[in-house]
Amino acid sequence: MSKPRTPEEGGVETRRRATINDIARLAGVSKKTVSRVINASPFVRADTREKIEAVIAELGYVPDPQARGLAYGRAFLIGLVYDNPNPQYVVNMQLGLLDAMKGSGFELVVHPCDRASPTFLDDLRGFVERQRLFGVVLTPSVSEDERAAALMNEIGCAYVRVASVSLDKAEHMIETRDRLGGREAAAHLADLGHTRIAFVSGPPTFRSSHERRSGFEEALEERGLHLAKAYAVEGAYTYESGIERGRELLSMAQPPTAIFAGNDEMAAGVLQAARQLGRRVPEDVSVVGFDDFQIASRLWPTLTTVRTPTREIGRLAAERLMGRDDTGRDPKSRLPSLVVRESTAAPPKA
Amino acid sequence: MSKPRTPEEGGVETRRRATINDIARLAGVSKKTVSRVINASPFVRADTREKIEAVIAELGYVPDPQARGLAYGRAFLIGLVYDNPNPQYVVNMQLGLLDAMKGSGFELVVHPCDRASPTFLDDLRGFVERQRLFGVVLTPSVSEDERAAALMNEIGCAYVRVASVSLDKAEHMIETRDRLGGREAAAHLADLGHTRIAFVSGPPTFRSSHERRSGFEEALEERGLHLAKAYAVEGAYTYESGIERGRELLSMAQPPTAIFAGNDEMAAGVLQAARQLGRRVPEDVSVVGFDDFQIASRLWPTLTTVRTPTREIGRLAAERLMGRDDTGRDPKSRLPSLVVRESTAAPPKA
DNA sequence: CTGAAAGCGCTTACAG
DNA sequence: CTGAAAGCGCTTACAG
Question: Is the full-model pTM beyond 0.70?
Answer without folding.
Answer: yes
